[in-house]
Design brief:
By secondary structure, the protein is mainly beta. It is built from three helices and 31 strands. The structure holds CU-O-CU linkage (C2O) and copper (II) ion (2 copies). One copper (II) ion binds next to loops. One copper (II) ion binds next to strand 5.
């Protein structure tokens, strides 16, 4: 192990933009391992996941996207607080990139952290066929670790002959848990053992890039410490019940001290769904002696990002009420009167609504904002889940300061761009409307977004 990698090195951001070329293209991927049949996918540069983009905090980034698919696409930079015109929502923030055309995204990520990119056009199918990649913005002084690992987790629904199953946008699924698949991959392939050495400290960046699958990871015999949620640093803490809960689109940066026994194997288990727990992967310790006896005592706190702290005393307050879905038992089912609402379960119809309005699709021109905030204004948002389903609610262009869940304060100073609500949860969060434009707010279960669990906020 190169010990030189241990010490954090302060590195200033260069002023010249980093330029990356990215194509949206069909390709093939060995999802089931190198010896298995390859699966036809759509991916960035035809790969899954797409190329990992790494920039330093404050370094300008330019990405030239070339659409080689036979349908429109865009790229959305999930979690990055960037100018509205770079946000990648077709119709709303840019025209879609037509087949054979190019679009250049350029922005300077203000926050260090773990982010990702994916399409925002025909999102359910494009993400479901593999289009996603990691965007890492490096801190000038990262937390010291022996290795910095990324686990991009994705969920696929494959047929017996290793093809991606058709049937995207099934109305029944859209009104329930969404398209949960039957194969979870780690960095684009079915997970194999993760070789580790006793005594190592690993920084692990977990990204849930699934369409709909929620994950709760337990590292048997280990105690991961959460350093950042959705890219934003928090007070380092152990997760509740030792489980790392990751709804679609959520990220967690954790530190893992490998204090297990040399030669032993420890499972990483995903036990989110009752009765459906499965071993995601295995930490396979090499036989050699520990590289150090005790976990290092270097600090775990990440440097703060330049997030504006909302002023709760003067904040404007708004509520978002989520309704719909099967077994909703609320105003949605069979009551009619919901704008644009079809019977849940009908293909292409709306199954969900926010404050009684269903915006369907991926974003389009002329979406009326739910409300408008004056630039610079603080806003407290209360999100009420009146449905029987889980929803990872995502805001573009901002990170939420998390305040409370079901009346109890949220600890560890957490910020997030994607907030997971359990059935009947009420969550309070706040942000400063410092970034002008029309911003989407939607559920990141892709079927739910397409079927109406979406709205737009305007900052003017
Ligand atoms: Cu990650 Cu609007 O999306
Ligand atoms: Cu986003
Ligand atoms: Cu949802």
């Amino acid at each position: 192990m190169a010990l030189s990698s241990w010490l954090p090195r302060a590195r200033a951001a260069p002023a010249e933009p980093r330029t990356v070329a990215l194509s949206a293209a069909p390709g093939r991927a060995a999802l089931l391992g190198d010896d298995a049949t390859e699966t036809a996918i759509w991916g960035y540069d035809g790969r899954v996941p797409g190329p990992e983009i790494r920039v330093r905090q404050g370094e300008p980034l330019k990405v030239v996207v070339d659409n080689r698919l036979d349908q429109d696409t865009t790229v959305h930079w999930h979690g990055i607080r960037l100018p509205n015109a770079m946000d990648g929502v077709p119709g709303l923030t840019q025209p879609p990139i037509r087949p054979g055309e190019r679009f250049t995204y350029s922005f300077t990520p203000p926050d260090a952290g773990t982010f990702w990119y994916h399409p925002h056009a025909n999102s359910l199918e494009q993400l479901g066929r593999g289009m996603a990649g990691v965007l890492i913005v490096e801190e000038p002084e990262p937390v010291a670790a022996d290795r910095d690992l990324v686990w991009m987790l994705a969920d696929w629904r494959l047929t017996r002959d290793e093809r991606i199953a058709a049937g995207f946008g099934n109305g029944m699924e859209a009104a329930m848990a969404g398209r949960v698949g039957n194969l979870v991959t780690l960095n684009g392939a079915i997970p194999t053992d993760q070789p580790v050495r006793a005594g190592e400290r690993i920084r692990l960046r977990l990204i849930n890039a699934a369409l709909a699958r929620i994950m709760a990871l337990r590292f048997e015999g280990h105690r991961p410490i959460v350093l950042a949620v959705d890219g934003q640093p928090c007070d380092p803490h152990e997760p509740e019940g030792g489980r790392l809960l990751l709804g679609p689109a959520m990220r967690l940066d954790v530190v893992l001290d490998l204090q297990g026994e040399p030669g032993k194997r420890y499972r990483v288990v995903d036990d989110f769904y009752d009765g459906l727990s499965y071993p995601l992967t295995v930490l396979a310790y090499e036989a050699g002696p520990p590289i150090r006896e005790q976990p290092p005592d270097t600090p775990l706190r990440l440097p703060p990002n330049p997030l504006p702290e909302p002023d709760l005393a003067t904040a404007e307050r708004h509520e978002l009420t989520l309704e719909g879905g099967m077994m909703g038992g609320g105003a949605m089912m069979g009551m009619g009167g919901m704008h644009g609402m079809a019977t849940p379960g009908m293909d292409g119809g709306a199954a969900w609504a926010i404050n009684g309005v269903s915006m369907t699709g991926d974003g389009h021109a002329g979406m009326p904002p739910l409300f408008t905030l004056q630039r610079g204004r603080s806003c407290v948002l209360t999100i009420r889940n009146r449905t029987a389903w889980w929803h990872p609610m995502h805001i573009h262009g901002f990170s939420f300061r998390m305040l409370s869940r079901n009346g109890a304060p949220i600890l560890h100073r957490q910020w997030s761009d994607t907030v997971l609500l359990a059935p009947k949860d009420t969550v309070e969060c706040a942000f400063v409307a410092d970034n002008p434009g029309d911003w989407m707010l939607h559920c990141h279960v892709m079927d739910h977004q397409m079927a109406g669990l979406m709205t737009v906020l305007r900052v003017a």
